[in-house]
Specification:
Rossmann fold; 4 domains; 21 helices; about 35% helix
Length: about 575
């Protein structure tokens, strides 16, 4: 499910002449059985609403008094989110003959044509109040209080995002909360102004229209997603923008060091801008320092399942799960253990909206026999990033709806995906030019597009934590052996490299220095051309003593990788 809650107005939407039909009530109960939440958003005062609608308990939350009061039917808890009406204001209205006049916990209500008198009294008393109209009703509330603010408070209680709410209404005072919802609906009897701004207008009026909407929600939830408005911009083709839908499962693949993490970082910036919660599984420490996210785990402390689920449970918190302290063979087990809890959270809240799984071949490897069991039937809002698409679980690959291939081996990515998923390969696969990427929707059977992808505004030191604190394999490590190969000291990261380099004798240090071994390692294993160039300069400068060259190289390493996060960056 993508839409987790239905928020509906009462009078003129759910009810006709104040009464909810039995068929409409049955439809609400049917929707609730799917696991979705029901929220009533009304201008009515709570006592009046309870008298008119005894079945109020079908709703999980009630936003009453046009947004000023939050009521929980299950516990009968009431919570006012604005101040009570000033006694002098009510007294003045009565003195001026404003009738009928209703006073709630926060709202003061009457009918047209008393709005002129109400406005004059507000100005005379210098009160910060505003008038809201509802088909002839005149409602007075503290400034800034409306159905949208009330809905936001109710959603906070339910730990839901407005992206995953369908709203339905009919009148002027419904505008605010409808526009705050992920999908807005007007019943057929709604005012023209409401219909003009709604995503959908039902064929039926009032309760009939709500019944039709519920039927559509139950059967075609994902089809209601506005792919462009709710989508995430990937880039452009000949001036036309290309978007990823919130329901997509995306594969980003290409050779190492080609820009996969850079593209993913740019996408996270768009998630933040759009208000989508995200969680990144980061086995290699690529996303340390990512803006707008909290990191769990580091090079020495592995993340825990409880930490991840606790943080992701907070709707406004984005999370980077750093798996550097986990051995490669431990990562699939960690992810498999976490997936059920994560799937349960997504079922009930549709959050986090986006999962970014870097090094997906580590977390969802083909060799595991239980991948099908730990996977849900779908992975909506998921980005799988890998160098080796052929090593990812075939069950996961078959869920992919969009393929993004980068670099000189982009064609091989498409071929590998098609081979592993038994998908008919596209004709005429182009080679990406410059900074463009290949974009393909396998299920749509469209041609592959050459997209100029978006770029991130923030700069991350790629793999900085991995190389500084992680555990490079034997082939990727540096070995201090000396001129006579009398030693075999292995440095599996840059911190260990620096520690060993400080302790070895000058003869061993200079042997590797003059052979160009340090710059070679930095260039090909650490993949840092700038560090390699700085080191090569020291290697070629024969005027430097062992002490001076050692200081030059180690200062460069510490400045770029092991200095505090607040240290200035180049």
């Amino acid at each position: 499910m993508y839409f987790i809650a239905l928020a509906t107005d009462y009078d003129g939407t759910l009810a006709q002449d104040g009464i909810v039909a039995e068929k409409t009530l049955a439809a609400l109960e049917r929707l609730k059985k799917t696991g979705r939440k029901l929220i009533l958003v009304t201008g009515r005062e709570l006592p009046d609403l309870k008298r008119a609608f005894p079945e109020l308990g079908v709703f999980d939350k009630v936003v009453a008094e046009n947004g000023a009061l939050i009521y929980t039917p299950a516990s009968e808890e009431e919570r006012a989110i604005s101040s009570a009406p000033a006694a002098k204001f009510v007294a003045k209205l009565k003195k001026h003959g404003v009738k009928p006049l209703s006073v709630g916990r926060s709202i003061v209500a009457t009918w047209e044509p008393h709005e002129t008198t109400v406005l004059e009294v507000i100005k005379k008393l210098g009160l910060e109040l505003e008038i809201i109209f509802n088909k002839g009703a005149v409602m007075v509330l503290p400034s800034g209080i409306n159905k949208a603010t009330g809905l936001a408070a109710a959603l906070e209680d339910l730990r839901l995002s407005p992206h995953n709410v369908v709203g339905v209404g009919d009148a002027e005072n419904d505008h605010a909360f409808l526009q705050a919802c992920g999908y807005s609906v007007a019943v057929d009897n709604a005012l023209a102004a409401v219909k003009n701004t709604a995503d959908l207008v039902t064929r039926g009026a009032r309760g009939k229209g709500v019944e039709q909407l519920i039927e559509k929600l139950v059967k075609h939830d994902r089809k209601l997603v506005r792919k462009r408005r709710d989508g995430i911009l990937l880039g452009s083709v000949s001036g036309d923008e290309v978007y990823l839908a919130p329901t997509d499962t995306v594969l980003i693949a290409g050779s190492s060091g080609i820009g996969k993490s850079t593209l993913a970082t740019a996408l996270t910036e768009r998630f933040v801008e759009a208000g989508f919660q995200f969680c990144i599984f980061d086995p290699e420490g690529d996303y340390d320092g990512l803006e707008g996210a909290v990191r769990i785990g580091d090079g020495s402390s592995p993340p825990t399942k409880a930490q991840v689920l606790d943080l992701i449970g907070k709707p406004d918190t984005n999370v980077v799960v750093n798996g550097l302290a986990l051995q490669v063979n431990e990562r699939p087990d960690f992810f498999a253990d976490l997936l059920p809890g994560l799937g349960n959270l997504r079922f009930h809240t549709a959050r986090p909206h986006w999962l970014v799984i870097d090094e997906a071949h580590h977390l969802l490897p083909k060799r595991r026999d239980d991948t099908r069991a730990v996977l849900s039937l779908e992975l909506p809002g998921t980005v799988l990033i890998t160098v080796h698409p052929e090593a990812i679980s075939t069950d996961a690959l078959r869920l992919v709806t969009a393929v993004i291939a980068l670099g000189p081996k982009a064609k091989n990515v498409i071929k590998a995906f098609c081979r592993e998923t038994d998908t008919k390969p596209p004709k005429d696969v182009p080679s990406p030019k410059g900074e463009r990427v290949l974009f393909w929707r396998p299920q749509a059977r469209k041609k592959i597009a050459m997209v100029k992808a978006i770029e991130p505004r923030q700069s991350l030191k790629r793999h900085s934590r991995k190389y500084a604190e992680g555990h490079l394999d034997e082939a990727g490590s540096f070995y201090f052996r000396g001129p006579d190969k009398a030693m075999n000291l292995r440095a599996h990261n840059l911190m260990i490299f620096a520690q060993i380099a400080e302790g070895i004798d000058d003869r061993t240090w200079e042997h590797h220095l003059r052979a160009g071994d340090y710059s070679e390692w930095f260039r090909h294993q650490i993949r840092d051309k700038v560090l390699a160039r700085e080191t090569a300069a020291a290697e070629k400068d024969e005027m430097l003593s062992a002490r001076e060259s050692r200081k030059h190289v180690l200062d460069a390493v510490r400045r770029r990788y092991t200095a505090p996060a607040t240290a200035p960056q180049e």
